[in-house]
Design goal:
Layout (H helix, E strand, L loop, with lengths): L1 H34 L3 H37 L4 H6 L3 H36 L7 H34 L4
The structure holds protoporphyrin IX containing FE.
The site of protoporphyrin IX containing FE (HEM) has 24 residues, from helix 1, helix 2, helix 4 and helix 5.
Amino acid sequence: MLYQLAVLIHLLSAIVWIGGMLFLVLVLVPVARRSADSPERATRLLGQIGRQFRPVGWVCLGLLVLTGLYLATDHWRVGLVDLFGGAGWFVHALQVKVGLVAVVLVLSAVHDFVLGPKLTTLLERRGEPVDIKRIRRNRSAVVWLARLNLLVALAVLVVAVMLTRGSPL
Ligand code: HEM
């Protein structure tokens, strides 16, 4: 019962987190770019949307790590020690997955708490001339970081499937 509940929470968190990022990239970003009267307005709007999604994303990531570690140790009997030296397909796939999750956590933190807020500060500076070049440089860094993060998140998904269902190759 607890096992099924943990898998349900794990999958639901993955759906909300990855689904949210895909919706942002595939739907909200193009619509904001097309409808705003200037690129800066679009960036401001996307910044607000990003800030609204931020707690949702971090709660999902937290739940993924907690339920993931619970599933690995309680159901699959792979402890933290095995993660650093264990053998077998499942352990190796889990090592890759946890490594990728660590990368995602770092990229998300830099995006959400460093570069994103810096861009917002630049856009909301009042009483000073707007430095368009600096804003565009920062925006480009934020966008590329978000794309990279999404790619690594999708790689986590691929490894997650191979973890329990084996390699297709
Ligand atoms: C430290 C972090 C994580 C650990 C330790 C972990 C561990 C696990 C384990 C042990 C399972 C097997 C569950 C079972 O069916 O018994 C699993 C499945 C799964 N995980 Fe994670 N996970 C982590 C993070 C993530 C993240 C960030 C995602 C989102 C992309 C994710 C997506 C999935 C999916 C989709 C499955 C189902 C795979 C399938 O049934 O084919 N996991 N995870």
